[in-house]
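Entry for pyridoxal-5'-phosphate complex. Fields follow.
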Amino acid sequence: MSGLIKEACSKTGQVQFETAEWNSFHEEAGEERMKYDFTTILDRRGHDSIAVEPTAWYNINTETKPGFQRIPMWVADMSFPTCPSVTKAIADRLSHPCFGYFEPREEYYEAIRFWQKERNHTDVTKEDIGYQNGVLGGVLSALRVLCSPGDNVLFHSPTYIGFTNSAGSYGYHMIHSPLKKDEQGIWRMDFADMERKIIENNIHAAVVCNPYNPCGRVWTREELTEMMALFEKHQVWVIADEIWSDILLNGHVHVPCHSVSEYARMHTVTQYAPSKTFSLAGIVGSYHVCFNPWLNDRVKKESQITHYNQMSVLWMYAMIGGFSKEGTEWVDELCAVLSENINYACGFIEEHFEGVKVMKPEGTYMLLLDCRDYCTKTGTDLLSLLKRGVEYGVLWQDGRPFHEEYGIRMNLAVPFTLVKEAFDRLDRYVFIGGNE
Ligand SMILES: Cc1ncc(COP(=O)(O)O)c(C=O)c1O
């Protein structure tokens, strides 16, 4: 976060930076101009967004006080306009007014191959790729190949709520190995606990999230190598959810799980999507990469069983638009913007919110606050704290369904001025005394 921007914010108290203003601050600080727009504050109301118009499953049931605009900081989508090459690709296709049955074009496979090579240094063939209507569906298709309902499956905790809901409703028995914070407050896998649970529960399938939602770890090659060696020892197959692989902060590098050993390559099915990267969740679609021909064939078969698990032509074009040269430039800028947001927020928390701990995320745009000490010290229960945030327009998320007893999950993929506004409100009105 450049000091200039901080200073300018506090001087003007303005709610909106235009891209030009952002650029001039960065230029004065000797930084490069932003080519793309990450500063316009989009009014998402009335535009099909649960981020600002939450549905019944947003469990913090309270009104926002008049005069406080709602800041969308919960569900994992972004409040930035997407990459121009995405909207252009969709618009170009819309100009031909016929949308019948179709087969994916060669450019679709080429786009994935380009992206995988460019971002993950991975060579992928057309045959290695499969389609699914969403990453959670892909995780479930792979689980259906590898386990029967009632089988034990290894997950880490805190756990992404989508895993809990979907694996639970399909009848898999989730065994959690808790991540633990080390002396520096960094979330780590507990390999001894994982091994014990694998043996005790006769586990042969694990779901690994990389980068990790909600804790923000980008697993290192060393960590993944140790994890895969453990899985090899006990013949555990891996479903790697790498939906967040493009959202890397402060220079962290994504290492695909499948890349760390020959065992990993032949026993992993990896789920990817452009949805987090370009904010395309509402267009729906994902793909998997799998180098084991048997596993790949079985997962493709499972995912096609319903017949309705078919690609939308607009998703195909959105993805082709995103997985392009322009897409790489846009994502690089996005990651720089998100890094600034995260750095600012974590610095602010440390400076202002006594009793609140957070590991600075290395990837994803989600923060997981640990409010245990704050709640204990001030005699505040978590729900009252959550409600206080929503009353002042900070639409954040209850961390308890992610298995974090005093957790609050916050989405920082909003323009910087909204991050600043949200943290100012939290400071002024929310992290105060006890229950009101
Ligand atoms: C780790 C992870 N997997 C899957 C999903 C959902 O993906 P999809 O909407 O493609 O099912 C999310 C969304 O937040 C996620 O964080």
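NOTE: Residues 1-18 have pLDDT under 50 and may be disordered.
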